[in-house]
Design goal:
This protein is 36% helix and 20% strand. By secondary structure, it is an alpha/beta fold. It has 2 domains: 173 residues, Rossmann fold (3-Layer(aba) Sandwich), CATH 3.40.50; 52 residues, Alpha-Beta Plaits (2-Layer Sandwich). The strands form 4 sheets. It has a 5-stranded parallel β-sheet, with helices on both faces. Helix 1 runs parallel beside helix 5. The longest helix is centred in the middle third of the chain and has 23 residues. Bound molecules: flavin mononucleotide. Flavin mononucleotide (FMN) binds next to helix 1 and strand 6.
Length: 248
Amino acid sequence: MILYFSGTGNSHYVANRIASATHDSLFSICQQMKDHQHGPIFSKTPLVFVLPTYGWRIPRMVEQWIEDTSFEGNLSAYFILTCGTGTGNAVGYCASLCRKKGFSFMGLSSIIMPENYIAMFPVPDAKQAAAIIQAAEPHISSSAERIHRQEPLPKEPISLIGRLESAVANPVLYACFIRAKGFYATDACVGCGQCEVLCPTNNITLLDGTPQWANHCIHCMACICRCPQEAIEYKKRSLGKPRYFLNP
Ligand SMILES: Cc1cc2nc3c(=O)[nH]c(=O)nc-3n(C[C@H](O)[C@H](O)[C@H](O)COP(=O)(O)O)c2cc1C
């Protein structure tokens, strides 16, 4: 079973590619989180978690969802992390999550995809994004083949900096940056409610046709990047930047 979480489409795209190469089914963690569902989830095939990297680890709310959810059947677990540049020591934290859950850890692949963190960094334009995705294709295919053969994924090297990013920079990112304060809708908003539907944590509600953000945002960038009117901004940081979304 290919379980994915995706804000802006990268992980959904990779999950689709793996599902078709392994003839396995897709399962949306976003929808489960939105619906406050925690299984039980039964899978005959290994669990393949396809997730974005947030602060050199898997997104905290997804980790919590995995911890709180009961899984039955095949309890081998693969982790495929899409990222802009790297996953630090996410592998160490995924292995430890597997120990907690009684999963047999089958390894982690880091797949470099276009950066989506428009609230912090520049994001690529369409041409740059296409080139990054094309470069990722062989890695996606080789990971899918290994999963199909139920072989462990090759170990990736972890640098000292990578360990520090996951252990030290991750808590700093959550403490200082990951919050909803800063998002706002501009006059271009037509009140279509797409942001409310897309938000995986039900953090957005429309008040008199205008989106309002509560305080359990996970910075997935779905609202700002997928607004059909490009009517959402984050402080001054997103002004003038292209929106990034990959159609899975
Ligand atoms: C809150 C946040 C934190 C991120 N942290 C990292 C990171 O630590 N390392 C990295 O390489 N990319 C990081 N990124 C980039 C995403 O992991 C990457 O673009 C991913 O493919 C997005 O997947 P999605 O389109 O499925 O949401 C971060 C993005 C966001 C929104």
